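Technical annex, item 7. During the second reporting period the consortium partners agreed on a shared format for inverse folding records so that results from different sites could be compared directly. Each record opens with the tokenized structure and is followed by the designed sequence. A conforming record, contributed by the partner at site C, is shown below for reference.
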């Protein structure tokens, strides 16, 4: 049995983003429409047994990091139980979580005990009214309290994900930098992507992060940085300084004289498909091979028809061989009709 998943473009797939639900307790303007109700039916959700089986197969094929995401993963009941089962898999080295933070106060301790080590929390504004407007009525205080709970529970690093929108929250980036410096958080700035109608309308607020970086350079002394830790076996990371801690595409700088790292995630202005190392599993078991393409393989029918473990691994290998070379968010912004919450952000 091989221990690496290599796609047709010689990229090593080492990371699965696992959506445990497409539901969310917020309605961010760029993500889900306020009146959206077309969610995956619970009977179609992979059960924890099925998820564990799929992730075990992935880890036996070479994947060693998994991120729990959604939708809002903390809305799936008993998530810490799933986290404990996954973190017990012998080849899984890194279990992380992306959350909006709303329910983090209640769950941070249990998640940490279950083996989640680090988290990313979405936070687009530090102003209560603006936060509510962006998130469809979300309460900023809950998220800030959730972040404090994450710190208390020993989740580290905590990364703040901020989707930067021109004329919406780009005047707050400096405030966010200072907020993260004070709390020892990492800040990641993200360009809006044209996913679904919501993402496409938000793209009218698209801002090239190079512009943001130049603005920040007028205020802060920024030096190139790499996130520490993690394996550094991905060649692109060594060549480009891409972070391997998140195993991902952020290009980092550090604010001199502080421990703050700021990551720039630029799927639109400077895509990073050549170093893509991930696939996404939706709540109903569709394996999406690229965030910006429709290619997918449905694993749920295979699981429910009783496929063997070897058969499952073969299906995963065959899927990876079909991973597209790149997204076409710029060339074909109308292409992806599914919302980010469906694929697993
Ligand atoms: N609910 C969790 C959270 O808030 O982080 C995880 C899922 S959410 C879909 C994951 C990330 O996708 C969030 O940081 C969110 O801001 C981002 N996102 C959603 N739609 C997006 C879009 N159209 N463009 C850029 N980022 C988007």
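Designed sequence (site C submission):
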């Amino acid at each position: 049995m091989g221990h690496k998943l290599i796609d047709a473009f010689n990229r090593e797939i080492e990371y699965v983003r696992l959506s445990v639900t497409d539901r969310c307790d917020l309605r961010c303007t760029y993500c889900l429409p306020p009146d959206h109700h077309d969610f995956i039916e619970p009977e179609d959700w992979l059960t924890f047994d099925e998820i564990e089986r799929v992730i075990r197969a992935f880890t036996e094929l070479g994947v060693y990091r998994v991120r729990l995401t959604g939708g809002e993963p903390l809305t799936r009941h008993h998530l810490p139980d799933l986290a404990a089962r996954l973190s017990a898999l012998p080849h899984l080295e890194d279990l992380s979580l992306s959350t909006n933070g709303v329910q983090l106060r209640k769950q941070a301790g249990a998640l940490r005990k279950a083996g989640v080590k680090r988290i990313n929390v979405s936070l687009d504004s530090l102003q209560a009214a603006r936060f509510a407007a962006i998130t469809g009525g979300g309460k900023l205080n809950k998220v800030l309290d959730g972040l404090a709970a994450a710190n208390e529970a020993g989740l580290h690093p905590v990364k703040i994900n901020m989707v930067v929108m021109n004329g919406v929250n780009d005047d707050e980036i400096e405030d966010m930098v200072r907020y993260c410096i004070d709390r020892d958080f990492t800040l990641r700035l993200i360009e809006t992507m044209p996913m679904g109608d919501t993402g496409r309308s938000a793209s009218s607020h698209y801002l090239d992060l190079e512009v943001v970086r130049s603005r920040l350079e007028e205020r802060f002394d920024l030096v190139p940085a790499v996130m520490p830790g993690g394996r550094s076996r991905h060649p692109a990371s060594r060549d480009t300084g891409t972070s391997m801690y998140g195993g991902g595409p952020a290009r980092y700088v550090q604010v001199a004289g502080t421990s703050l790292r700021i990551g720039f995630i630029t799927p639109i202005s400077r895509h990073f498909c050549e170093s893509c190392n991930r696939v996404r599993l939706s709540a109903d078991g569709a394996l999406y091979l690229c965030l910006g393409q429709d290619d997918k393989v449905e694993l749920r029918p295979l699981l429910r028809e009783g496929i063997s473990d070897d058969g499952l691994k073969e299906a995963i290998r065959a899927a990876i061989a079909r991973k597209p070379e790149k997204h076409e968010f710029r060339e074909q912004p109308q292409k992806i009709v599914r919302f980010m919450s469906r694929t697993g952000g």
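The first strand starts at residue 15 and ends at 19. The domain at 15-343 is CATH 3.20.20.70 (TIM Barrel). All partners now use this format for quarterly exchanges.
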